[in-house]
Design goal:
- One of its GO terms (molecular function) is GTPase activator activity.
- Pfam families: GDI.
- Regulates the GDP/GTP exchange reaction of most RAB proteins by inhibiting the dissociation of GDP from them, and the subsequent binding of GTP.
- This protein is α/β, with parallel strands linked by helices.
- Helix content is 28%, strand content 24%.
- The chain has 13 helices and 19 strands.
- Helix 1 packs parallel to helix 9, helix 1 crosses helix 13 and helix 6 crosses helix 8.
Length: 444
């Protein structure tokens, strides 16, 4: 390996593959390596036999579950906001041509022991059983304000500077009660806890607006889309993009030791006795364990079922958010459900994930509020994994380390990390201005 690369990317998780593709498009010379012989890293998709081997060691899966090859079980399951940043990245890079998407049927929120469809605009607010008559009117006024809000048109600001006024103050202006604030903040704006209430309201209003615009885009039951055959298709789509722009891929490379010069900055990566030289390294936390710290733990249940989740209108794919206050937890809980309509399980089968930021070492008990919503379950697997964040100064050692995937079942925080890393690696912002109306990012 005598060549020198601008960037060596280690690991083929989704974040690493997106960055590999984007940096190749930017004109950088990229070498992408992985110790595994498959794409996806932590965010891979498993067939039924692989799922069984991972969680039940040598047991064989029961024949009643169908053929192994008909399963594509995401290890980090997440839906995409139809107008969100990941869709913009896919359109900007034309990775959409490698993938087919389908709208997700439903978006629900848990409130006082029941699940409700999430109202996202003034029309839905007036119909929602989540609120009483007077609260519906107040919520409608808030949604109209959000829909009309334009950062560049002061007349839409209703006398508020959202760069200084807090989210809490905006909510107070409309007199919304705690229940309404709960579902708007957690199920529409997708905040993981209530700290956003004390922050400037601009981000909050933009997030609610994004939800409503994404919902309107496909006239479906939710603002989310999801690729046919699961998320395992995404890393491979970005790998193809990187290859088109000259990126080199090497799977099944054991070791992958990052080498450093006397100044503490990376000079290359060694595998199987050969060193590839580079100026920068991009990797997931597992490749540089001494430059990361544990910041949390995710608890999850993977559930195989032969029916849709009750009380969701027989939806084949749904997200249910259980806000932290509703389950007396420090962070939200998420239910992700998909089925044969997205080609991830055999006909008649459904798969549900229940995830949350772990607060105990007992995922079975901790995840019970979400599991109780599912009805009968054929098979259930419990799992926990640690979350890591980088502790290094990437400007000094030229090592750019992604954060571990969180418990959310949507991609907003994942893409925020990718965009921030891209900015630090290249010194420029990622241009995500695309014509969403002209792009067909989903196929019904």
């Amino acid at each position: 390996m005598d060549e020198e690369y601008d960037v060596i990317v280690l690991g083929t998780g989704l974040k690493e593959c997106i960055l590999s593709g984007l940096l190749s498009v930017e004109g950088l010379k990229v070498l992408h390596m992985d110790r595994n012989d498959y794409y996806g890293g932590e965010s891979t998709s498993l067939n039924l036999n692989q799922l069984w081997k991972r969680f039940k060691s040598n047991d064989a899966a029961p024949e009643t579950l169908g053929a192994s090859r008909d399963y594509n079980v995401d290890m980090i399951p997440k839906f995409m906001m139809a107008n969100g940043a990941l869709v913009r990245v896919l359109i900007r890079t034309s990775v959409t041509k490698y993938l087919n998407f389908k709208a997700v049927d439903g978006s629900f929120v848990y409130n006082k022991g029941k699940i409700y469809k999430v109202p996202a605009n003034d029309v839905e607010a007036l119909k929602s059983p989540l609120m009483g008559l007077f609260e519906k009117r107040r919520a409608r006024k808030f949604f109209v304000f959000v829909q009309d809000y334009n950062e560049n048109e002061p007349k839409t600001h209703e006398g508020m500077d959202l760069k200084t006024v807090t989210a809490k103050a905006v909510i107070s202006k409309y007199g919304l009660d705690d229940n309404t604030v709960d579902f708007i903040g957690h199920a529409l704006a997708l905040y993981k806890d209530d700290s956003y209430l004390e922050q400037p309201a601009l981000d909050f209003v933009k997030k609610v607006k994004l939800y409503a615009e994404s919902l309107a885009r496909f006239q479906g039951g939710s603002p989310y889309i999801y690729p046919l055959y699961g998320l395992g298709e995404l890393p491979q789509g970005f790998a193809r993009l990187s290859a088109v722009y000259g990126g080199t891929y090497m799977l099944n490379k054991p070791g992958c030791k990052v080498e450093f010069g006397d100044d503490g900055a990376t000079i290359g990566v060694t595998s199987e006795g050969e060193t590839a030289k580079c100026k920068k390294v991009v990797c997931d936390p597992s490749y540089l364990p001494d430059k990361v710290k544990k910041v949390g733990k995710v608890a999850r249940a993977i559930c195989l079922m032969n029916h849709p989740i009750p009380n969701t209108g027989d939806a084949h794919s749904v997200q249910i958010i259980l806000p932290q206050k509703q389950i007396k937890h420090k962070s939200d809980m998420y239910v992700f459900c998909c089925s044969y309509s997205h080609n991830v399980v055999p006909k008649g089968k459904y798969i549900a994930f229940v995830t949350t930021e772990a607060e105990t070492d007992n995922p079975e008990a901790e995840l019970k509020p979400g599991i109780d919503l599912l009805g009968s379950v054929e098979e259930i697997f419990f799992d926990t994994y640690d979350r890591y964040e980088p502790t290094n100064l990437d400007a000094s050692d030229n090592c750019f380390i992604s954060t571990s995937y969180d418990a959310t079942t949507h991609f907003e925080s994942t893409v925020d990390d990718v965009i921030a890393m891209y900015r630090r690696i290249t010194g420029k912002d990622l241009d995500l201005s695309v014509d969403l109306s002209a792009a067909s990012a989903a196929e019904e």
